[in-house]
Amino acid sequence: MSNENVIQVERLTKTFGNFTAVNAISFEVKKGEIFGFLGANGAGKTTAMKMLIGISKPTSGEATIAGFDVYKHAEDIKKNIGYMSQKFALYDDLTVKENIAFFGGIYGLSRKIIKEKSKHLIEELGLVDVANKLVGALPLGWKQKLSFSVSLLHNPKIVFLDEPTGGVDPITRRQFWEMIYKAANQGTTVFVTTHYMDEAEYCDRVSIMVNGKIEALDTPKKLKAQFKVEHMNDVFLKLARHTE
Question: Which domains does the chain possess?
Fold first, then answer.
């Protein structure tokens, strides 16, 4: 992890009529950092992420992603990031190979690069025997790991993961986090939202959103010390009670 900030956010706000979904949040994320964006369902995590990846315009505030302004350079942001949505993002009616080729084309990779990356990715994930099978026939855990790998095809500076381990078994969750560590060690910044508080322990730093606001932000170790608890889930519970 370097000292270079690849995400810079200042008082970013999103309102829908009289409802404020994201309320003046500020933070920065460094290159190669695993940054956990935590909170209960409905806390505003996904709304905030949509602003950061350039698909939802903020109501107010400022943010730069990989050096690009969220208001002026949304298309440049999309070219420099990877994204894995809360719902499985690949196409069930295409094979594993076809999905990789399709998204490689969207990312602007040449046929030669797509072929090389496809071979490497399929072997690395242990999908050789199912490479020509429809993705819809794969177990959820394999789908999630494939989707994450595809989001990294174009070597993005930042990858945004929205609830990536929802619904998968504990073993697959652990394997998925091993993939996250590998990406971060290779210099990719990982911005991950989750409502699994135990996953906060895997992050370099975490922010905790409650009702659209960031109520805490630090390393897991420092947050547990600050709130005098042993587990991140207890940090969240204390924050939730305090802000009720």
Answer: 5-242 (3.40.50.300)
pLDDT mean across residues, the chain = 91
The terminus-to-terminus CA distance of the chain in angstroms comes to 36
- For residue 182 the two structure tokens come to 């590998």
Burial of 112 (0-12, 13-18, 19+ CB in 10 A): exposed
**Bridge partners, 17 (sequence order):** none
Collapsing DSSP to helix, strand or coil, 29 comes out as: strand
Contact 207, 217 (CB under 8 A): yes
What radius of gyration do the chain's Cα atoms show? 18
Residue 217 and residue 208: Cα distance in Å, rounded?
6
Nearest to 210 by CA among 163, 162, 243: 243
Which has the closest alpha carbon to 153: 203, 209, 208, 89?
89
DSSP labels for 193-221? EES-GGGGGGSSEEEEEETTEEEEEE-HH
Please say whether the beta carbons of 48 and 211 come within 8 A.
Answer: no
DSSP, collapsed to helix, strand or coil, labels residue 24 as: strand
Q: According to the model, what pLDDT value does residue 225 have?
A: 94
Q: Which of helix, strand or coil describes residue 60?
A: strand
Q: How confident is the model at residue 140 (pLDDT cuts 50, 70, 90)?
A: confident
Burial of 183 (0-12, 13-18, 19+ CB in 10 A): buried
Pairing of strands 189-194, 205-210: unpaired
Distances 52 to 41, 43, 84 between C-alpha atoms, Å: 18, 16, 13
